[in-house]
Each structure stands twice: as structure tokens, then as C-alpha cells.
TrEMBL record:
InterPro entries in alphabetical order: dGTPase (IPR006261), dGTPase-like (IPR050135), HD/PDEase_dom (IPR003607), HD_domain (IPR006674), PHydrolase_assoc_dom (IPR026875)
Keywords for this protein: Hydrolase
Biological classification of the source: Bacteria, Bacillati, Actinomycetota, Actinomycetes, Micromonosporales
Region annotation (Disordered) ranges: 174-198
GO terms assigned for molecular function: dGTPase activity
Ranges of compositional bias, category Low complexity: 178-187
Ranges where the HD domain occurs: 60-240
Entry-linked NCBIfam families: dGTP_triPase (TIGR01353)
Keyword Hydrolase among UniProt keywords: yes
Presence of keyword Hydrolase: yes
Protein name listed in UniProt: dGTPase
Top-level taxonomic group: Bacteria
Amino acid sequence: MDDPRAQRLFGDRLVAPGDLAGSPFRVDRDRIVASPFFARLAGVTQVISPGGAGLLVHNRMTHSLKVAQVARAIAERVDHGLADKLGGCDPDVVEAAALAHDLGHPPFGHLGERVLDRVARQRLRLLDGFEGNAQSYRIITSTEIRGQATIGLNLTNAVRAAVLKYPWTRRDSQRFMDPAPRGAAPPADDPEGGSPKFGAYSTEAADMRAARAPFAGRVADWQQTVEASVMDTADDIAYAIHDLEDVHRVGVLQQGAVATELMAWQRWGPATDLDRAGGAIESLRRQLHRKDGWMADDDAFAAAVELVRAELVDGLLARPFDGSLEAEAQVAAFSATWTRRLVESVETIADPAIRSGHVQLATAQWHEVQILKFVQNRFVLARPDLALHQRGQGRLLASLVEALLAWLIDPDEENRIPSRLRDLVELAEAELPDGTPERMDKARGRAVIDFVAGLTDNQAVGLMQALSGKSRQLWTDAFVL
């Protein structure tokens, strides 16, 4: 195939139901949607665990579908003259990348990601640890054992590059830039730990470079492609708006607490005592100036606070969600209005700031998204009752890793190891160079992390119950992937 953006890593040996589509990028989209990896996302937490909410809330699949919808709308609005100079912006590429961007996220949302990273680095001594974006790239990348594709969807260069929000590995040099790209700077409490956000493990680094090769000389080595930037912006919009629907539906986002915080800051302004009402949002304002001075603007920040207060606090939250048709219509109208405003504000930038991308929200809307995300982080994710629930989920995942490792090394169980887990061990061992210290231990560790990350929430719970002897059910669906 002449177009390097449309080339696949291993040619067209993988056949999927959508392969009759005219565009190679539509083939990619169909391969993603037809895969078991995408189907799994219906059982993976987005923000609130569907099993404990009692109402229909977003899971990783519905979130990905909405990101794809928003991303396609943005892709159709970009400056295509400028985008072509930067490597192109095909709506099919953007949609496919949006559908694939969360394939590697483990059970229990971002909590699962943090737990698996800690266990992988501290317990299993895997230098790459675990990162959801890198796991997604691992899944979509074709990897071979003895000439057979074992995992991967054999996607085109363009789509693989568009999935890369953070086009570097954990220990690439991007983390030493000043300022560093968003997600690349190591945290102050772990300066030797590498980038907290990265797009590929070291085992997939060569493939990452191959996917981005057609964009060489067009976008910086550390910069997203235009299509990746569109997908990333759409993900931000979906998180800021659609996840608010969930916390409103289940009644955990209370009007009074949000109103007190926003109105106190409006009353006292930047001089707010950080220990009193309004102090948290003032801390956000200062943080934006410190980390994102390229965009931070006090007038835009104040206007965003007022808009969120008027439309969220005095609008959506003014009446508790009761499941009525009127309440549903109010949620739908809020989401549609905000999505339209944000999508219509998107700009295409020739020379973006290091912490931005070639596609970004206008100044006013960028600040609005920061305030919406603040509301969720402050008044939902920081709740002690959610922390209680998540601590239990975190202990479950850590215990599950230990139980599976014990199973793998039990000499009496060698012939009864789940086939999927055995395959992952073989794959991980093949990726490690000969002479790697503790090669088999590291291969088992990576295999267990890959296995656990590929479970749904319910599969993780059910498998741990079975392994701990608490389940009376003989068979489980935990090994289907």
C-alpha cells in the first residue's frame, strides 16, 4: 500500500467482519468494535461502578462511544489545510482511535490503574509498571510468537499513532524537558520513577516509532498527531460533561456543597484563605498559572466559574434527579448544550505550547472544562464513602495478582493453568531478551498484570472469590478473554 499512514505492521493477514469496508481506516474502526477487547469495556467502571449505582451510568464502552461521537464532530471542523501539512486529520482515523483509547484500562477505573502500577513496580520489579494508555497500545499492537499473531488488531499506522496521547515510553527523555509535555514530568515524590503518563511500554517502543514515522518532520517527536490531539480533546470533553450526568443521576453531587465553594470564591476572589470555603477553587486557579501559564487567564477563569455556577448549580443541580421524563430531558439538554459549545470552540494551532496539542479548546472553554473537572474531582472523587469502596477494590486487585502468581509457580498445577494466562506468559517471555535477569519471574509478572487488566469488574470479583474459596459456583467466565 503506497500511503504510509495506511500501512499495517504485518500487512493484511488478520481478517475481521469489517474488512470489506472501502477505507482502510474504516476497517480499523470495525476491527476494534468487533474485538472482544472492546466488548469487555461494557463491564469496566468509568467513574462509578455500575454494579453499585443502581441506575444506568457510563461504563468504559459507553464512554468510548461518546468520545468517538465528539471526536468525529471535532475532526470535521478542524482547519484541514493546516491539518494536512501536519500529517492529516481523517474522521475515520479519529473515530477509530477514540473507540480504542480505553481498551487497556483495567477493572475499577483509574483506581485499578494505580493499584496495578504499584504492584507491577514494587512487587514484581517491572520497570515499565502499568499504565492504561500503554496497555491499550499493547492490546492493539500485533505481536507474534512463532509466526502467529497472539494479540493485536493489526491497525494502520495512522490509527495506532492517533491512539498515542503520550507518544513516549516511561523512561524516554521527554520527562527532562522544561517544561515537560503534559503527563511526562515525574512526580516530586518519585523523581526516578519515570513519566507517570506514557503511551507505550518498552516492548512496544519500536512499533510506536514505526506508527509515527509517517509524521516525522511534521509534528515534534513529543507532540501528538493532529488526530491524537482531536481524540484527546474529545476525551476531555466527554469526561467533563458526560461523567457529571452519572454523579447527578445517583445523587452524589449535591447542589449546596458546590454552590458554597463557587460562590465563596466569587465573593472573596483570589485573596481567599485556602482553608475556608472557596479555597479549593483558588488552589486550582493558582495551579493553572503554575502549570499551564500558556493558557491560564484570570478573567476567563472567573467567567468560567460564573457560567458553571449558573448552568450547573442553578440549573442541572437545582432539582434532584428523580428518573422522570422531565429530569431525563434536563440532563440531555445540559449535555447537548455544553458539548455543542465546547466542540464549536475547538481551534487548530500550528505551533502549540509544549503542554498542549495542535487541536485545543479556545481560552474561555478551556477554563470551563477545568472548572467542570474540578467539581467532579472535589465533590465526588474525594468523598470518603467512595474511598471506602475503592480501598476494598484495590485490596481485591492486589490479592488477585498474588493468588495468580502463586498458581503459576505451583508445580502441581502446571497442567491446569488457564490457557489465556499460559499464552500471556509465553508472550512476555518471548519479548524479553535472552540473559534478562530473573527472566521467567518477570515474564510471569507481566503475564499476570496483562491477565488481570483484561478482566471486567465482575470477573475480577468472581475470580478472587473462587481463588479464596468463598464462591460456591464451580464455573466462572473469568477466562473468556
